[in-house]
Amino acid sequence: MYVLALVTQKGGSGKSTLATGLAVAAMAHGERVALVEADAQGTIAKWKERRTDSYPHVDRIVDPTDIDPVISRLEAEGIWLAIIDTAATNNVLAMTAIARADLCLIPARPSPADIEAAIPTLIAIRRLNRRFAFILNQTPTRGGRLSEAATSLNSLGVLALPFIAQRNDHQDALGAGLGVTEFAPEGKASDEIVALWDWISKHLIMESPDHEQAALKTAC
Ligand SMILES: Nc1ncnc2c1ncn2[C@@H]1O[C@H](COP(=O)(O)OP(=O)(O)OP(=O)(O)O)[C@@H](O)[C@H]1O
Ligand SMILES: [Mg+2]
């Protein structure tokens, strides 16, 4: 099972929105997906209450010591991907999620303040020796400051593609208990999330220790 964690101490950067959007996009590929909410705010739990589809299941975690047992149970249940949504803080719960993740995703809006605010999270990820990628989220659909933000993030580490534009479909999907790919399958927001899931899934699998082991065995 792979574990993704959406992390950054910057509030409102899109952790929960991307967690739900990516979970549903991954399910559409036939993957068995679960969401783990490590944020007392409950954005994912409230989304789930509005949702009529019983998948993905959502587990809520309050205590850092609960992460390991929940991840082990999901793995035993045959889940292929667990996506952990964390709170806008570098608390112990968020650190435990980072430590458990195969890939940490750090959403940032294209402003210097947002990018600077992600640095403490990045330092924690590096200290825990985890893999990570930035996601440039809520980008303007026209013009403006994008290349500067992309250059800053690229200089700090890997930047996932594509950028996710600011589009109402994301907010409406969250409100409707849907993934954005379910809410407006033909929309640009949906296209971007499908493409982002494609990028993430390739990086998860290609750079996982399991894959490296398999490649090593083939080479021998
Ligand atoms: N690409 C986007 N386009 C439009 N709205 C977006 C986009 N991404 C996120 N939003 C909206 O921005 C707001 C904040 O997003 P979200 O709650 O996902 O951020 P968060 O990082 O989880 O916040 P918190 O740190 O408080 O948990 C929400 O209203 C959400 O729907
Ligand atoms: Mg959130």
TrEMBL record:
Organism encoding this protein: Bradyrhizobium sacchari
Coiled coil ranges: none
Superkingdom to which the source organism belongs: Bacteria
Descriptive protein name: Chromosome partitioning protein
Lineage: Bacteria, Pseudomonadati, Pseudomonadota, Alphaproteobacteria, Hyphomicrobiales
PANTHER family (alphabetical): COBQ_COBB_MIND_PARA NUCLEOTIDE BINDING DOMAIN-CONTAINING PROTEIN (PTHR13696:SF96), P-LOOP CONTAINING NUCLEOSIDE TRIPHOSPHATE HYDROLASE (PTHR13696)
